[in-house]
Design a protein that fits this description.
The complex is a heterodimer of chains A (466) and B (93). Chain A folds into three domains: 77 residues; 191 residues, no CATH class; 186 residues, TPP-binding domain (Rossmann fold, 3-Layer(aba) Sandwich), CATH 3.40.50.1220. Chain A has 17 helices and six strands. In chain A, helix 15 links the parallel strand 2 and strand 3. With 93 residues, chain B is an all-alpha fold. Chain B is built from four helices and no strands. Chain B has one domain. Classes of the chains: A alpha/beta (466), B mainly alpha (93). Chains A and B meet through helix 1, helix 2, helix 3, helix 4 and helix 8 of A and helix 1, helix 2, helix 3 and helix 4 of B.
Chain lengths: 466, 93
């Protein structure tokens, strides 16, 4: 097939990607959007296989089979709680594939077997792909490790890490310049990949688990940009278009997550928030004698007399696998005429929108999942708020401007405006920001100490007896 | 230089299209959007196919095989997991 024809099909694939992403932006069209996107991909792959430069299909078929098996297995076995890990690892695969493929293209071009000439565009974009692709490969690996608890989830702060990072970046830029200036050997490319891989590790280890929504979004953007760079190397328009679409999506989500935490991107990446955990003495000042513990029966009575209940879930609910028990509780309350809604903070969970997926899996209809801006004005008319496994996103200290408070200025769910607040939590331990939460000691608050799933089940049992 | 400018044009315009298309996605769909977009970034597979099909040297063939496998896992896994997730969203009966 001639190059013109192939490019026309690539254009069709690019249109399908755009329609697919557009479809993904509305709940009713999302499934169709995903199917459009995947058919665009299929089209692009099939057309590419007709390329005359391909002399042998064994390696391609082997790669396709192995990759499809790995991808499908991971996709089917993944639990919704581990969705951030899955997206992280797929991101890493994409970034890594771009870097390796560009390396292979460079190798072939050096042998003179490649149609593309080694010009300025080739070397400059190859250097960019090596840097971004390798950072997204190892960065995603570390993010995966942190989310899977294989690597310490709290920030790991190496001494002099800023100096090391700047040095690594300077080395990367130097190697890039070498590759561009002297494209006669691939050595600079591979060394660049290695140094960038190290940089990826260094950039992600100092970031705490609660900041993962930002890291995952950013790595997603990087893997898109790496794919676009790959398109620059090969002069392939569909790679450039699809890659930059994904890059834009990743950057938008990164910006949204930063805004949701009211922190700048450099602050999230470099400040190491969550490394310092409050001492017991500090917490004792706030909690001493003011925390009221309640039994499930007492809370059940409170819920039974309520007209409107809002449930504010956090990642702790997912860790305890309490989603189904919580949904049972919500159903029971609704069957008794209580209005129940869920308050979803933008950074609840470990990736953007994670909490919505977890609750959707537990059969909560999506109309009941209210975003922060929608639910916040309604807390004054709410009788009881059930905070389940959330901490920092309901911490009133965030309203302070004191710079020593790591979450100062972060918009929170204003649960303390409700008539009463019940917090289901195992202990008074601090959340990811490492600071105590005055909400637990407020007059209107009751602590229901225990495992989230166990307590939700006990509340259901107690409600059934009243 | 001509090709470079053409590629740059496509790149910049696509960034704007992406921004406009995705800007209004509700938080409800952030996770599926991200995993769906992530699958699309597996488009790098298209580039790896040509490179690995040429079989110039053993080294590039091995690199090509790994790149094809990684990118395919990205594409197949990404679209499947997005489909699975979207199947869970439902309205009130």
């Amino acid at each position: 097939m001639s190059a013109q024809f192939i490019n026309l099909f690539y254009l069709a694939a690019a249109v399908l990607f755009i329609l697919g992403l557009k479809g993904l932006s509305h709940p009713r069209t999302a499934v169709r959007g995903n199917l459009l996107g995947s058919s665009g991909m299929l089209l692009a792959i099939v057309v590419t296989l007709l390329d005359r430069r391909i002399v042998s299909f064994e390696v391609i078929v082997a790669g396709l089979v192995v990759g499809a098996f790995i991808g499908a297995t991971m996709a089917y076995r993944a639990r919704m709680t581990s969705m951030p890990q899955v997206v992280a690892i797929f991101n890493g695969f994409g970034g890594g594939a771009s870097a390796l493929a560009v390396g292979a293209a460079l190798q072939e071009a050096l042998k003179g077997g490649f149609v593309e000439e080694i010009d300025f565009q080739f070397t400059l974009s190859a250097a960019a792909v090596a840097l971004i692709g390798a950072v997204s490969f190892t960065g995603s690996g570390i993010a995966f490790g942190k989310l899977q608890r294989l690597v310490k989830e709290r920030p790991i702060l190496l001494p002099g890490r800023h100096v090391i990072n700047v040095a690594l970046l300077v080395i990367c830029l130097g190697l890039s310049a070498w590759l561009v200036a002297e494209p006669t050997s691939s050595l600079s490319f591979w060394v660049l990949c290695g140094v960038a891989a190290l940089l990826g590790i260094m950039l992600v280890i100092p970031i705490g688990g609660a900041d993962m929504p930002v890291v995952i979004s950013l790595l997603n953007a990087y893997s898109g940009i790496a794919a676009a760079g790959h398109g620059w190397v090969l002069n392939n328009s569909v790679l450039i278009i699809a890659g930059s679409l994904v890059g834009a999506a990743g950057f938008i989500l990164t910006a949204l997550m930063c805004r949701a935490m009211n922190r700048s991107l450099p602050n999230i990446i470099f400040a190491g928030v969550g490394a310092v955990v409050a001492t017991e003495a500090e917490s004792e000042d706030i909690y001493a004698g003011r925390v009221k513990a309640a039994s499930p029966e007492e809370v059940a009575m409170l819920l039974d007399s309520a007209r409107r209940v809002v449930i504010a879930p956090g990642y702790g609910m997912a860790v305890a696998q309490a989603q189904y028990a919580v949904q049972d509780l919500a159903n029971l309350l609704e069957s008794r005429g209580v209005e129940v809604e869920f308050a979803i903070h933008p950074v609840a969970g470990r990736m953007p929108g994670h909490m919505n997926v977890l609750l959707a899996e537990a059969n909560v209809p999506y109309e009941k999942l209210k975003e922060m801006d929608v639910i916040n004005p309604t807390f004054r008319q709410t009788d009881v708020v059930l905070v389940i496994g959330a901490n920092d996103v309901v911490n009133p200290l965030a309203r302070k401007t004191d710079p020593s408070i790591p979450i100062a200025g972060m918009p929170i769910l204003n649960v303390d405006e409700a008539r009463s607040v019940v917090i289901i939590k195992r202990s008074l331990g601090p959340g990811f920001a490492g600071i105590p939460n005055p909400l637990f000691a407020a007059d209107k608050s009751l602590m229901l100490f225990g495992d989230a799933k166990e307590m939700a089940m006990q509340l259901v049992a107690a409600l059934k007896q009243t | 230089m001509e090709v470079f400018v053409a590629a740059l044009t496509i790149f910049v315009l696509a960034l704007f299209v992406g921004y406009e298309v995705i800007r209004k996605v509700p938080p409800l769909l952030h996770t599926p959007l991200m995993s769906g977009a992530n699958a699309i970034s597996g488009i790098t597979l298209v580039g790896t196919l040509v490179t690995s099909g040429m079989q110039l040297t053993l080294f590039t063939t091995i690199l090509g095989f790994i790149a094809v496998a990684l990118a395919t896992a990205n594409v197949v896994g990404g679209f499947l997991v997005t489909h699975r997730m979207l199947g869970m969203f439902h309205r009130k009966q």
